Amino acid sequence: MASYEAVRHGAGPPSLYADAVYAFLVAMAIAAVVTPLAARLARRVGAISYPSNRGLSTRPVPALGGLAILAGVLVAALIWLPGEIVLPHLLHGRSGASGTVHTSLLLVGAGLIAVVGAIDDTRPLKPLVKLLGQIAAAVVAVLGGAVINHLTIPFLGALQFPNGGGVLTVIWLVALMNIVNFSDGVDGLAAGVCTIDGIAFALIAFNLQGAGSAAALLGAITAGGALGFLFHNFPPASVFMGDIGANLLGYLLGVAAVIGSLKTNAVLALVVPLMILAVPFLDTSFVVAKRLKYGRKPWEADAEHFHHRMDRLAFGPRKTIAYLYLWSALMAGCAIALRLVTHRHLHQTPWMVGLVALIVLALGASVYLLYVLEILKFKALRTRQMRAQNPEVTDDEIVLTVQRDIETGEFDRVPQ
After folding, report:
1. From 3-7, 77-81, 387-391, the region with the lowest mean pLDDT
2. Longest CA pairwise span in the chain (Å)
3. Contact 258, 85 (CB under 8 A)
4. Hey, is 160 helix, strand or coil?
5. What is the DSSP letter of 152?
6. What confidence score (pLDDT) does residue 407 get?
7. How far apart are CA 226 and CA 70, in angstroms?
């Protein structure tokens, strides 16, 4: 396939938008069809996920569903992604010399992390071995040309990395793989959030680099593969994506961000991808910080993720992922709106009012989920539980108990 920069030869923007839709649908269809086959293979080789602290499942479920996501992504990518992606580099604050990303190596990296994940799902690997596999896949992507050569930080300007961009890219990709992997603890959560995030990256990448952006196609393909798998993973799930799927989706979203929104001189180049990925980022950050606070290893599974805490508040799997889907969609919507307003200079009053309203709504949802659901509702439910057990309990005793429970995370599930 020939290389291109913004628009493929002989195809106008409408055709390229259609390409993204077709790539999304093909990846989705293939993933949906292959997922039951992957589940059958998982049962045959013993890749079964048993109930543990990491998730909310109460029964053994076959893993390896990520193989279906890989199949959908590879087929769609081979059809629609160009062999070479030519993207502008930043040169003294302007678009200057171009760089080339080799799609074949990006797909090799995807295949490599899928192999590592499949082995781990079948015969669990040690954390260091898994980390080395993630680093290897990220290095392949860097060798393929997906390198962060600069970051634009709001109010500070562009920071260029003529020599350290490769290392920074590896750190970014490995972080995304682990963030998605950590968040994969309840049926349908990781697949649904990655579908939302992939669509958001696709919309923003088209806006940034013109119709036909390869980053937009990759985002659409990733979203399609995740959605096709979600048909079988929505609660109650018949199959899990496993480490193979979580690491793969994290890798693909990370690469889409690198060759898309992070490779521009936009004022919001750093803020946009972080806002799109806000939910898994916040979840992982809180959990890791708490593990470090209590002297536990950051990679050790526990029951302190958002979905665990919401389950203890008697939300149930479907209601839990509905709230987290909505939160992810609001944050992604804010990122898209910010990008449109700043890039196209849509400073008219209606656009600005709409943007402010969306940001307020997203912030309100964040406060509601992080504060009300985690603390106030828990306090009310815990109060009823304690008064049912002991009608003589005082308000001070309830307050002290709730504070202790929230601080340590060591409390029983509130009955529905």
Report:
1. 3-7
2. 79
3. no
4. strand
5. E
6. 58
7. 9
Q: Quickly count: other Cβ atoms within 10 Å of residue 67's Cβ.
A: 28
Please say whether the beta carbons of 276 and 201 come within 8 A. Answer: yes
Q: How long a stretch of residues is the chain?
A: 416
Q: What is the pLDDT of residues 267-306, one digit of tens each?
A: 445 566 777 777 777 777 777 777 777 677 776 766 666 6
Location of structure tokens 């993973």: 233
The residue ranges of DSSP E strands in 146-197, in sequence order, are 150-153, 157-160
Q: Cis check for the bond before 88: say yes or no (omega within 30 of 0).
A: no
Higher-confidence position of 296 and 65: 65
Q: How many alpha carbons lie under 13 Å from residue 313 in its C-beta half-sphere?
A: 26
For residues 251 and 73, give the distance between their C-alpha atoms in angstroms, rounded to a whole number.
12
Q: So where are the chain's domains?
A: 13-284
First to last CA, the chain: 57
Cα-trace Rg, the chain? 22
pLDDT band at 390 (very low <50, low <70, confident <90, very high): confident
Residue 11 has pLDDT above 60, yes or no: no
- What mean pLDDT, rounded, does the chain reach? 77
333 token code pair: 């919507």
Residue pair 238/39 in contact (Cβ under 8 Å)? The answer is yes
DSSP helix/strand/coil, 243: helix
Is the distance from CB of 252 to CB of 66 less than 8 angstroms? no
Angle at 231 between CA 229 and CA 181, to 5 degrees: 40
- Short-list 327, 228, 333, CA closest to 282: 327
β-sheet bridge partners, residue 91: 94
If you search the block for the tokens 């980053």, which residue do you land on? 215
Q: Which among 69, 67, 194 is positioned nearest to 118, based on CA atoms?
A: 67
- C-alpha distances (whole Å) from 64 to each of 132, 190, 193, 233 are 20, 14, 19, 12
Question: Which position has the token pair 């799930």?
Answer: 237
Query: Between the CA atoms of 125, 130, 132 and 137, what dihedral angle is there, to the nearest 10 degrees?
Result: 130
**E strand intervals along 29-180:** 48-49, 61-62, 84-91, 94-102, 150-153, 157-160
